[in-house]
Specification:
repeat, Cytochrome Bc1 Complex, Chain D, domain 2, mainly alpha, Cytochrome_c-type_DH, 3 domains, two-stranded antiparallel sheet, binds heme C, Cyt_c-like_dom_sf, Membr-bd_ADH_cyt_c, heme
């Protein structure tokens, strides 16, 4: 009996040493609060640059609660481990980052540790922001520190055990956080390298577009940009695995980034709309660089294809009798806006996506198309794209399913299985404004 007890004792002591050692190793000191930087510490040029960089990094998209004041935090982000709330990043000295030195800010952005020395959850994309260079990091700090300070305490994040032990994130970082800049690839042109810097850094494109493993770490290699899911939306692949019926070209990507719309593919709705809002403000040179980088994940030999001929071919023959319910629903509810063959019509309602070219109708998942019909597009990515009404109160689950599968059949695609049930589920789970973003 005594030998058994001794054995248990040895195991316990070892455990305490290991756990103690882990906490000692992962311990991060608090960084002393500083006085707020005096007015005039930053040049106007630096502040203006920081503003553009903040738009590129979508800081306000995540750090603003629905209906809340910009950057005061409180957006609930659903993660597999519970709800994480974003923080106040205005320079308020009590509830925001007003007492953060540049050193503290830089540590949070590149190492995921806050001023108090607490590890931050990777719902905050510091795994991407660690790539941001010193000059840009300083400009971001200059911009944030010169914004209005707003006193607002967002709800505290309280995950369940063991996820509430923030030191555990150190182990996650050990596996998934690759600190430092994107290594320059000298075999590629400077434009490509600039695009990589933007996409892998502030743009954090892979946070949404790459699938994740069971520990919520982004998959790389062949899985990079291979598509994922987010808050009910299916995030399309940016690789040749895309379901887009016509291959993307660099010009298509530029138009999509600049205007939130590519006549040959469709528009940016859902979680991509606020991303475009930030991208559309960037310089043409940077958007072309981003396009060049994204293009390198696609098959470079693909022929762009003739959009008009492609659409004409899809409508060459009607697949059903003209009084078929699907056609009637389309004529009644959609044709007034989605009828022309070119995709773009200059009208007060904005652009007109040509649905025979829309990635979402060719996707394996019906979610994006169904969500757009249920909830409409209330906030356009840019003023030129326009909005679309919600049909949740006009069309039943069965009608939306018939409409979508009729279009699929007309375009020569298999029907989506169990569609009425899936539309019903999305109708219930994804009320507009329930919450807009969740962890990836
Ligand atoms: C995808 C959503 C998302 C984006 C985009 C984002 N953040 Fe955050 N950020 C978070 C979350 C969530 C937290 C809190 C994490 C936690 O509590 O562990 C956070 C925390 C922070 C913190 C630590 C604050 C504190 O009080 O501990 C700073 C600083 C910060 N973010 C700055 C930024 C900046 C600057 C940008 C834009 C370049 C940005 N964030 C973009 C989600 C985001
Ligand atoms: C917050 C999540 C999120 C982030 C961050 C994000 N995307 Fe997206 N992206 C989406 C979603 C969701 C869609 C589908 C939108 C739709 O169909 O209306 C999309 C669509 C796209 C498309 C259109 C694909 C197609 O075939 O229709 C491109 C191109 C794209 N994103 C590129 C990017 C790039 C480049 C970045 C980084 C600068 C980026 N995205 C960052 C979520 C995101
Ligand atoms: C009042 C005009 C209008 C009507 C009616 C309308 N739409 Fe739209 N639709 C738009 C506009 C404008 C966009 C692009 C908006 C944007 O992205 O900001 C759009 C976008 C879409 C998209 C593409 C979304 C994406 O992410 O690429 C789909 C799919 C769609 N509509 C389907 C339908 C269907 C099906 C109907 C009929 C039930 C319908 N629309 C009725 C104006 C309309």
């Amino acid at each position: 009996m005594r030998t058994l007890k001794k054995l248990v004792l040895i195991v316990l002591v070892l455990l305490i040493i290991v756990i103690g050692g882990f906490f000692a190793l992962t311990h991060q000191p608090a960084i002393e609060p500083t006085a707020q930087p005096p007015a005039g510490s930053f040049s106007q040029q630096q502040i203006d640059k920081g503003k553009l960089l903040a738009a590129m990094g979508d800081c306000a998209v995540c750090h603003t609660a629905p209906g809340g004041v910009k950057n005061t935090g409180g957006l609930p982000m659903a993660s597999p481990f519970g709800t994480i709330y974003t923080t106040n990043i205005t320079p308020d000295i009590d509830t925001g980052i007003g007492r953060w030195s540049y050193e503290a800010f830089e540590r949070a952005m590149r190492h995921g540790v806050n001023r108090d020395g607490k590890y931050l959850y990777p719902a905050f994309p510091y795994t991407a922001f660690t790539r941001v260079n010193d000059e840009d990091m300083k400009s971001l700090y200059a911009f944030l520190m010169t914004q209005p300070a707003v006193k607002h305490q967002p709800p505290e994040t309280a995950l369940k055990f063991p996820f509430n032990i923030r030191a555990g994130i150190a182990a996650w970082n050990w596996v998934y956080l690759k600190k430092g800049p994107v290594p320059e690839d000298t075999t590629k042109p400077p434009e490509w390298n600039r695009g990589a810097y933007l996409a892998e850094g502030l743009g954090h494109c892979s946070a949404c577009h790459s699938p994740r493993d069971q520990f919520a770490g982004e998959l790389g290699g062949a899985q990079k940009f291979a598509g994922s899911t987010l808050d009910g939306w299916s995030v399309p692949a940016l690789t040749s695995k895309t379901s887009a019926p016509l291959p993307w070209t660099a010009e298509d990507l530029y138009a999509y980034f600049k205007h939130g719309f590519s006549p040959r593919h469709g528009s940016a709705a859902g979680p991509m709309a606020p991303v475009i809002h930030g991208l559309s403000q960037q310089s043409d040179a940077d958007l072309n660089a981003l396009a060049s980088y994204v293009m390198s994940f696609k098959d470079g030999n693909a022929k762009p294809g003739d959009a008009e001929a492609f659409v004409a071919d899809k409508f060459k023959e009607s697949k059903f009798a003209l009084d078929h319910e699907g056609y009637r629903l389309f004529e009644g509810a959609c044709a007034s806006c989605h009828s022309d063959a070119t995709g773009v019509k200059d009208s007060m309602f904005g652009v007109r996506p040509q649905l025979a070219l829309n990635t979402n109708l060719y996707s394996d998942s019906p979610n994006n198309a169904a969500l757009v019909i249920l909830n409409g597009i209330q906030t356009a990515a840019t003023p030129t794209t326009g909005t679309m009404p919600a049909f949740r109160h006009n069309l039943s689950d069965a009608q939306i399913a018939t409409l979508l599968n009729t279009m699929r059949a007309q375009f020569g695609l298999q029907p989506w299985a169990d569609l009425p049930a899936q539309v019903g589920k999305l109708r219930k789970d994804k009320e507009p404004g329930a919450h807009r973003l969740s962890a990836h």
